[in-house]
Amino acid sequence: MLTVGPDPSRRTTMRSSSQIAALAPEPAEESIPDPAPEALPRPAEHTALGNLRAFLTLMVLAHHAVIAYHPYAPALTTSLAEQPRLWQAFPVVDGQRWGGFGLLMAFNDLFFMALMFLLSGLFVWQGLESRGSGGFLRRRAFRLGLPFLAAAAVIAPLAYLPAHLQRGGDLADFWPQWISLGSWPAGPAWFLWVLLAFDAVAAGLYRIWPRWGAALGRATEGAQRRPVVFFALLATVSAAVYIPMELAFNPFRWTELGPFFFQTSRILHYLVYFLTGVALGAAGVGKGLLAPEGKLARRWPLWLTASFVAFTTMIAIMIAVSAPGQGVPRSLEVTGDLVFVLSCAASSFAFLALFLRFARRDGSLWTSLRRNAFGMYLVHYAFVSWLQYALLPAQMSGLSKGALAFLGTVVLSWGATALLRRLPGVARVL
Q1: How far apart are CA 387 and CA 393, in angstroms?
Q2: 72 contacts 14 by C-beta, under 8 angstroms
Q3: Domain for residue 350, yes or no?
Q4: Are 262 and 190 in contact (CB under 8 A)?
Q5: CA-to-CA dists, residue 205 to 91, 220, 315, 422, angstroms
Q6: What is the pLDDT at residue 352?
Q7: Which residues, 6+ apart, have CB-to-CB distance to 166 below 8 Å?
Q8: Stated pTM of the model
Q9: Using CA atoms, how far apart are residues 416 and 411, in angstroms rounded to an integer?
Q10: pLDDT of 330-379, one tens digit each?
Q11: Looking at the domain assignment, is residue 3 inside a domain?
């Protein structure tokens, strides 16, 4: 069950689950493409979903930019080696806090990783049919595997160096301590290898049963007329895989091997959302649930209300779970797990509805953000932690520091990505 705001001493391992939140890249036909200038205009639904992906990128940057000012950020340990290693989620911890950031991060954590996996699956079937399983997987390994290795090898140590410095370390002893950790924290780059693993699952299924995606796509065709039924089906399936995993492993446990990390209780939950994206894409982006004029988009107030109700219910459960006592009753834990699943689906549907309804037009700012979103995700974590570290001595409120860290991260990440994309070799990946 998801919690926010408890005493960090109750946790043995914790990372913000959107560390949490790497963004799905936008590679050619396997995602939401941006055409060349001479190409046909983007369909409205492609623009809307591309804009949603770009907006979620900004949410990821905001999530990490304000985490140093979370009201329940953990106390500093004496070194990176000391347990619990909460610095992997909180590279820098500032004494200035703001309660609103706790709500923002709780809301993000409930849904946006799952929605990222759903968006990542939308053009998988198109890629499999056009390239075959081998060609598709080779392309995805190039577009995801190489960035993962680069981010893990370069960006992650740069991002975690301020954590070492804040604990009194210096540059000379950072590297020996880093390589002695027994693992290699990759930061938000974990999403890339998990997405690549999901792509491998899809490619393997395609080799065994070439029509599996089309069969799933046909099963989603009625979603345009009955999105509530589709919502119930998604919530039911995700609950069936998430609740047993959470009860077995708890929500804070992460499985790790070298640089390969994933949140144990949520891995199948994320796979369900990824496969849902594959199914929706196989049915046709712009058809079914994602039709710009469909019931999901037209009834956006309903989904916005459902998202708000589910989130506030989840917050109430988090407060109850965090209260001092003899432990969490199993009934409350299961209830919290169920509300987590409902909140995740409701918020995902709400964001899809809002962008399909209101964000279908293109513009130079959105176009630039879409094209740079993947690179911004890859490089932003280093900018975040160094900006937070630079702001430590500033006599400012937590709200002001968080706002400055976010704006600085957006500007620096966007600019750095735009410059990197001018390099021919890098442009092929970013």
Answers
A1: 11
A2: no
A3: yes
A4: yes
A5: 39, 19, 39, 37
A6: 97
A7: 76, 92, 93, 389, 392
A8: 0.90
A9: 8
A10: 999 999 999 999 999 999 999 999 999 999 888 899 999 999 999 999 99
A11: no
| Residue 229 CB-density burial (10 A; 0-12 exposed, 13-18 middle, 19+ buried) | exposed
Closest CA to 367 of 39, 120, 145: 39
As a whole number of angstroms, the distance between CA 395 and CA 246 comes to 41
Q: Pick from 272, 294, 331, 300: which is nearest to 117 by CA? A: 272
In a domain, 2, yes or no: no
As a whole number of angstroms, the distance between CA 343 and CA 359 comes to 23
Distance of alpha carbon 31 from alpha carbon 125, whole angstroms: 10
217: which 2 tokens?
Answer: 């796509």
Three-point CA angle 247, 21, 195, nearest 5°: 80
Quote the domain boundaries for residue 22: 8-427
Q: What's the DSSP call for residue 133?
A: H
Q: For residue 22, is it within any domain?
A: yes
| 6 secondary structure, DSSP code | S
Check if the beta carbon of residue 1 is closer than 8 Å to that of residue 321: yes
Number of domains comprising the chain: 1
| Whether the Cβ atoms of residue 131 and residue 123 lie closer than 8 Å to each other | no
Token pair 């979603």: residue: 223
CA–CA dist 59, 249 (Å, integer):
28
